[in-house]
């Protein structure tokens, strides 16, 4: 099943879990990934922003509230329909991140939250994002942390622990997602930090900032086990780049 088909199947549950603050989707997105990405964005008033892999429009709503002008693109038809209702002041279209239907130098900022790890090859999407950004424009994206992505659970007698295994194997990983009695398998692709940095430099970006996403303090009470784990093994990292 393609990523588009997966999100078509899971769209309603994916949206409601984040919108109504329940489940692990809310934890990983709203309490873990969002704070870092929004911090890196800083002041967006008056900025033209492209949200690549926009999902159900929740980021668009936040950015419009902060004074930005937002366009969003996603490969899932069902997700786009939800986004249009969630954030009617934004402009949303169905499309592919590897072939962006926008003008050169159209945007001040491009964001791609938790998107790039679904792509095996990043060359085309980085070329496209570079093209639609203005010179000096900002690109912010988040992804699965390359180190914790390769953590394996281990057991030695009565001791349980985790260790990184196969870090240099840039392979695919398959995960079963469940939302509202629907389920689908999602594939994402591991890349080392060195590969990621090399690609960003190759396609004309300067790295300004990068941080491992830390859960908000309120997550400690709502999701105590996940909170504790993510303080030791941050599952997501966020990057801030400038087009040069």
Integer tally of domains = 1
Low-confidence stretches at least 5 residues in length (pLDDT < 50)? none
- CATH top-level class: Alpha Beta
Oligomeric state of the chains in view:
single chain
C-alpha termini separation: 37 Å
Rg calc: 18 Å
DSSP, total strands: 11
- Please give the count of helices: 8
CATH superfamily: Vaccinia Virus protein VP39
Percent helix: 25-40%
Strand content: 25-35%
Question: Element order, helices and strands?
Answer: HHEHEHEEHEEEEEHEHHE
Report on the biggest sheet. Answer: 7 strands, mixed
Principal-axis shape equals: globular
Task: Give the CATH topology.
Answer: Rossmann fold
Strand order of the largest sheet: 3-2-1-4-5-11-10
Give the mean pLDDT.
Answer: 93
**Structural class, judged by helices and strands?**
alpha/beta
- Can you tell me the CATH architecture? 3-Layer(aba) Sandwich
What would a concise description of this structure say?
The chain is of the alpha/beta class. The chain has helices spanning 3-19, 23-41, 58-65, 77-86, 123-132, 193-202, 219-222, 224-232; strands at residues 48-52, 69-74, 91-94, 107-112, 133-144, 151-156, 159-164, 172-179, 182-189, 205-212, 236-243.
Give a description of the structure.
There is one protein chain. With 244 residues, this protein is an alpha/beta fold. It has a single domain, classed as Vaccinia Virus protein VP39 (Rossmann fold), CATH 3.40.50.150. The chain is 36% helix and 32% strand. The chain contains eight helices and eleven strands. The strands form three sheets. It has a seven-stranded mixed beta sheet, sandwiched between helices. Strands 6-7 form a two-stranded antiparallel sheet. Strand 6 (151-156) and strand 7 (159-164) form a beta hairpin. Helix 1 (3-19) crosses helix 2 and helix 1 packs parallel to helix 4.
């Amino acid at each position: 099943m393609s990523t588009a088909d997966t999100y078509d199947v899971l769209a309603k549950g994916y949206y409601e879990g984040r919108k109504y603050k329940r489940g692990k989707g809310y934890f990983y997105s709203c309490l873990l990934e969002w704070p870092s990405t929004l911090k890196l964005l800083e002041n967006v008033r008056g900025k033209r922003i492209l949200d690549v892999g926009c999902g159900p429009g929740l980021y668009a709503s936040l950015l419009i509230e902060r004074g930005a002008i937002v366009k969003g693109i996603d490969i899932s038809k069902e997700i786009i329909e939800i986004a249009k209702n969630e954030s009617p002041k934004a402009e949303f279209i169905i499309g592919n991140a590897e072939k962006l239907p926008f003008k050169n130098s159209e945007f001040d900022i491009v964001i791609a939250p938790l998107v790039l790890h679904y792509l095996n090859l990043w060359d085309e999407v980085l070329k496209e994002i570079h093209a639609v950004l203005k010179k000096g424009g900002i690109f912010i994206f988040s992804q699965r942390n390359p180190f914790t992505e390769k953590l394996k659970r281990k057991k030695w007698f009565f001791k349980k622990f985790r260790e990184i295994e196969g870090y240099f194997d840039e392979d695919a990983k398959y995960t079963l997602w469940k939302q509202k009695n629907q389920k689908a398998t999602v594939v994402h692709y591991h890349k080392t930090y060195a590969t990621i940095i090399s690609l960003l430099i190759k396609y004309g970006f300067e790295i300004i900032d990068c941080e491992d996403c830390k859960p908000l303090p309120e997550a400690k009470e709502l999701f105590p086990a996940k909170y504790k784990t993510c303080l030791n093994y941050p599952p997501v990292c966020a990057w801030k780049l400038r087009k040069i």
